[in-house]
Every structure is written in C-alpha cells, then in structure tokens.
Write a structure and sequence with these properties.
With about 350 residues, this protein is of the alpha/beta class. It has helices at about 10-20, 40-50, 65-75, 95-115, 150-170, 190-200, 220-230, 270-285, 305-315, 320-335, and strands spanning about 1-5, 25-30, 55-60, 80, 120-125, 175-180, 180-185, 205-210, 215, 220, 260-265, 270, 290.
Amino acid sequence: MTVLVTGTAGFIGMHVALELLARGETVVGLDNFNAYYDVTLKEARAARLRGHKGYIETRQDLTDSGALLALFARHRPRLVIHLAAQAGVRYGLENPGAYLDSNLIGVFNLLEACRAHPPEHLVFASTSSVYGANSQQPFSPHHPADHPVSLYAATKRAAEVMSHAHAHLHGLPCTGLRFFTVYGPWGRPDMALFLFTRAMLAGEPIRVFNQGRMARDFTYIDDIVAGVLAVADHPPRPSPAPRGGDGPLDPAGSPVAPFAVYNIGAGRPVALTDFIAVLEEALGVEAVKEMQPMQAGDVPETWADVSDLAALTGYAPATPIETGVRRFVEWYLWYYGDPRG
C-alpha cells in the first residue's frame, strides 16, 4: 500500500512513517521544512527516513495546490495521514498568518486533492486545544468544541468542520484525531519537556505558567503511533440515528457522512509540578522555577476520554510518564550531548 504522510520532518510524522516503513508499506513523505523551529532537527529526522527502502521524500508546501494534485496523480495513495500543521498556541500571537496558510488553505488543498484522486481513508491530526473554554473533564468528543481560546485551536476546529463537509459531499472517509500533549524522543523544541530540559542542563530557570497550577494528559509517542495506525484500519461509515433516537449509532461518528473524531491521549492527566519532579529525577538536576501567570490562549488542564477509540481499536496507552521522560532524556543527551561533561 502507498501511504501519503504529511509532516514527515516533524515529530509525530517521522515516527508514524518509520512504523509504516517497518510494516513494509511504501511511504510518500511530504514536508516543507519551514523554520518555525530548528530546521537542523527536521533534517536529522528526514535523514532517518531516507535510509529506508520504500520511502519517497517530497519537499513541497500544502499551499501549492497544483504540486499537491500532481503528487496525488503520480502516487495515488490508498491512505493519507495528514500530520503537517502550523503548531503552537503562543506562536499564533506572533505570526497568525502562518496558521491560516497551513491549517486552513493547506487542509482545503489536501481535501481537494483527495476529491480528485480519492484514497480509501484520510486520517488527520486535530488537537485537544479545540476544547478551549470547555471545563467539563475529561474532555470527550461528544462535548461541544465551540469556544476555542487560541487561533491555533480555531483553525484546527475549522479543519475538522471542513473535513466533515467534504466527507458528506464527496463520500471520502475522514477521521480526525485530537492529540493530547505528545512527547518523546525527537520531540518538538517548543514543547515544555524540551524547553525544561534545555534550561535545566544550562543551569537556567524554567518558566512555570499559572503558578504551577496546570495539568496535562502527557502522551508518549509510541502510544500515539499505535493509535494512529489502528484508526487507519477503520475507515468510518455514515452512522444514522436509530429510529426514535437522538444520536448516531456510532457516538463518535456522523449521521450524514463517513466521518469520525476521536481523542488520542494517555487518559490520565499529570500535574505540571509532578511532571517537573519526574524530569528532575531523570536529569539529576533540581529545577529553578520561575512562576508565571497563565499565558493567553492556554488552558489549565487537559484530560482525554479515550473510551471511543478504545472501543473501536482496542487502544490502550501503556507508557508511564517516568518511562517516557527517561527515554526522552536519553535521546536528548545522545543527540545534543551533555553540557555537564
């Protein structure tokens, strides 16, 4: 099977592509290698993929609709896993246009390419950030996601809605996955684990927002990859409401389209202070904490209800935070070296 994976120079994209290649699939990897963060790290991820038979690298931008259509015509992917996006909540205050280009225009172009050359299934990345001001915990795909508090979240929610409309109008099976704070080796430098590790090794203070009164459903990368690929094997079908009922037969699905949305997380929030303590243990360094107020666009807690995904695929995230953080630290010290000598 030929699989198109977008964002293969990114954190999750590289890991998903590696697992597909290990299974013997042909992977067409697309990335624009933008400079949102260290391009050298992106190049290093891409180098890991190039050594595999069956990997085809494509450097292009999703905003180039003509090149994207040509790519689909050339490779005719049976499965599309869309992981490319402009990520980051806080960066939306600095460069909002990047979110419109990647998360709206790029998604539209991808949907149009799928309409012209339909794959069997489009799996796309969404985010826990779409829950925004919703305070009901744990977050469930059945909860409203109508009050995003960041531009990033707003564009990702809009991408969900556009994909649903496309699925309804053109019959393309689409599944959205709302990721919850993914971490692990080869992670993103703008994420807390990376920022904390770098600062602690340099003897610098770490910024702890909301005075430390935060919790996140930290999800290890291997558990994410397992969930993504399990979902890929289950393209949704329209799930009309039963006679006399008030909801679709598949609660995660749509009554009018082959479309579904699932949470993909660990299902167990960790207090930020506990997370920092685990990192201190792994590094053998005590953090100097610089307490900060809540940042604009952020939320105090995330917690994923993954029961729908578990019912569909048997998804069962199993990596404890202590194991995942230790593996990240081991990778970080291998990749960057230990400044302590």
